[in-house]
Specification:
Layout (H helix, E strand, L loop, with lengths): L2 H23 L4 H23 L10 H16 L4 H29 L4 H22 L14 H16 L4 H22 L7
Length: about 200
């Protein structure tokens, strides 16, 4: 297993935790939590693979990834904490997942011959569309569309910087770490400082 696969699997687990936590705030049963966790973990990557023509899509026949989702749901079901902590945990796990899936989506797209510009778009989709689908299932306004949330923007900035680092020959593992750190940092900063894009 190479580094990018480790990042993708870690991202799957983190996003599955995010989805399961979200389901718990909506008082779903364990089946509902599994559905939301699965969609959060796999939704963006599935759409990416369909668009770039990967067959089968990333989760088919992958028992390890499925096991990570099941484990995430079981872990969350055993947690005993209050609602405020859940919301805080969702934000931070989601921010980490965004960074990991952006990198993973970019690298997977490059492997399949997508050019650098569109690989960033595929990375953003990988990171954000699972959460978009999960929010819709839960009846929430998706974070991707919320005013004042630098969500996809954080992924795009991190992805562009990541490709820039690769172009200038920055060591591979270091570039991955910097990209994830930038995306997480932008998410946290935008939340605390209420940074937002201009209105249309």
């Amino acid at each position: 297993m190479n580094l990018i696969e480790v990042i993708i699997y870690t991202g799957i687990f983190v996003f599955a935790i995010t989805g399961a936590l979200k389901a718990r705030t909506h008082q779903m049963d364990i089946f509902g939590a599994a559905v939301v966790a699965f969609v959060t973990a796999y939704g963006g990557g599935t759409i990416r693979d369909l668009l770039i023509g990967v067959r089968p899509v990333n989760w088919v026949n992958d028992y390890l990834a499925l096991g990570l989702v099941v484990s995430a749901v079981l872990i969350v079901s055993l947690l005993n904490t209050n609602f405020t902590r859940f919301r805080r945990a969702i934000f931070f796990t989601d921010a980490i997942g965004l960074g990991m899936f952006t990198v993973g989506g970019i690298e997977r797209s490059l492997v399949y011959g997508i050019n650098e510009g569109y690989s960033v778009i595929m990375g953003v989709m990988s990171a954000t569309f699972g959460g978009l689908l999960a929010d819709m299932i839960c009846g929430e306004v998706p974070n991707l569309l919320k005013r004042g949330e630098l969500y996809a923007t954080a992924c795009a900035l991190g992805g562009v910087i990541y490709l820039g680092l690769k172009y200038y020959g920055i060591e591979y593992n270091l570039g991955l770490f910097i990209c994830v750190a930038i995306i997480v940092g932008i998410r946290i900063l935008s939340k605390r400082k209420r940074l937002r894009l201009p209105e249309i």
